[in-house]
Amino acid sequence: MDKITLVVGSTRTGSFNQQLADVVRETVGDRAAVAQLDYTDVPFMNQDIEWPTPDAVARVRGELAATDGIWIVTPEYNGLMPALVKNLLDWMSRPMLEGSAVTAVAGKPVVMSGAGGRQAAAGSLAECRRLCESIKMDVAADPVGVAIGKGYGTGVLEVSDDDRTRLAAQADALLAAMEGAGD
């Protein structure tokens, strides 16, 4: 069975983006195995510590290299993606082995979604897409942003039927890209 790895850009308890990731998992259903990446122990990117590769970086690279597709679920902080996600992608843009050009994510199918304010994480998602394209990932569909709206008062992300339809289309596109990547 194909595997999708979720990269969630918020570690906050009750995170709206974790709630969105849970909706993503439901949306994919039994069409692929879905696992969430734990990358909170990855140090800030610094070429002075690149070799030998820190254990946490090697572990995460291995997990992302072995997955069939990646789904990034990112919040928006001050119009941009959080440092946690940016740092992970910066590390993943680097070679897996010293002297090699091969990275863990080049050519890997990816989609991105995010929950945010009135702009529905548009700034973060645009930045995330640019970075994924820059590091040669295969962006399989346009990003999907979900406005938090009343959730700010309740702590519960309300995902509309329209949002669910757009997430389902994203899932379909990612799964199709994963199938095509195996050719």
TrEMBL record:
User: Which InterPro entries does UniProt cross-reference here?
Assistant: Flavoprotein-like_sf, FMN_Rdtase-like_dom, NAD(P)H-dep_reductase
Q: May I have one GO cellular component term? A: cytosol
Taking the record's annotation, the residue ranges forming a coiled coil are: none
NADPH-dependent FMN reductase-like domain: from which residue to which, for each copy? Answer: 3-140
Q: Which Pfam families match?
A: FMN_red (PF03358)
Q: A Gene Ontology MF term for this entry?
A: FMN binding
PANTHER family in the record: CHROMATE REDUCTASE (PTHR30543), NAD(P)H-DEPENDENT FMN REDUCTASE LOT6 (PTHR30543:SF21)
State the protein's name: FMN reductase
Q: Which organism is it from?
A: Granulimonas faecalis
